[in-house]
Specification:
The protein has one domain: Alpha-Beta Barrel (TIM Barrel), CATH 3.20.20.70. 53% of the residues lie in helices and 17% in strands. The protein has eleven helices and eight strands. Helix 4 packs across helix 5, helix 6 runs parallel beside helix 8 and helix 8 packs parallel to helix 9. It binds SN-glycerol-3-phosphate (G3P). SN-glycerol-3-phosphate binds next to helix 7.
């Protein structure tokens, strides 16, 4: 499973990229707003750190407007893909992007039907938001399961990005189900690398090493 970071913070991206495990980055308008910096400047900097898919979101509500944004944003770097909300105008834009060779990430997906339509329109990625579904009383991971099955049944080449991840367990479940990608917030990926027994083990190995005659 590919691991993406769900953030627009370049310090966080640099740190996790340094671990040698980062395959891509997803951003959204909320994450960009948190940084208080120019959108294009942030995306340009992320592209210089990570050599993989970088999602930048369009905010127009019409296919024509989304296409204008998509053409501009993809000039930043060939790795930029355009996050487009699932809606009728979004589907039109996804299909138009496909024709122009622009990669897309269908976002705000909350059902496998939405994911299927986005894949049919030619989305490169679909992003079901599992944490927001869980918060709403629905098991988000069930949408991942059904979407994986549907895409496998028809050999669709759209990749599934598990998004809105809330815990390390979501990452394990994503990998067990066979999702292509999990986009993980910084705080969660930091939790994934640690275990109290690892800390105890390191401490005791270092203490014992001191007893070895040198
Ligand atoms: O980037 C999309 C998605 O991961 C947002 O997650 O935490 O705002 O539900 P969240």
């Amino acid at each position: 499973m590919k691991i993406f970071l769900d953030t627009a913070n370049v310090d966080q991206i640099k740190e996790i990229a340094g671990w040698g495990i980062l395959d891509g980055v997803t951003t959204n308008p909320t994450l960009i707003a948190k940084e208080g910096r120019d959108f294009r400047e942030v995306v340009t900097q992320i592209c210089s750190i990570v050599d993989g898919p970088i999602s930048a979101e369009a905010v127009s509500m019409t296919a024509v407007g989304i296409m204008e944004e998509a053409r501009e944003l993809t000039k930043i770097h060939p790795n930029v893909n355009i996050k487009i909300p699932i809606m009728p105008e979004g589907l039109k834009a996804i299909a138009m992007c496909k024709k122009e060779g622009i990669k897309t990430n269908a976002t705000l997906i909350f059902s496998s039907n939405q994911a299927l339509l986005a894949a049919k329109a030619g989305a490169s990625f679909v992003s079901p938001f599992i944490g927001r579904l869980d918060n709403n009383g629905q098991v988000g991971m069930e949408v991942i399961e059904s979407t994986v099955t549907m895409f496998e049944n028809y050999n669709l080449d759209t990749e599934i990005i598990v998004a809105s991840v809330r815990s390390p367990l979501h990452v394990i479940d994503s990998a067990m189900i066979g999702a292509h990608i999990c986009t993980i917030p910084y705080a969660i990926i930091k939790k994934m690398v640690t275990h109290p027994l690892t800390d105890v083990g390191i401490k005791s190995f270092l203490a014992d090493w001191e007893k070895v005659p040198k």
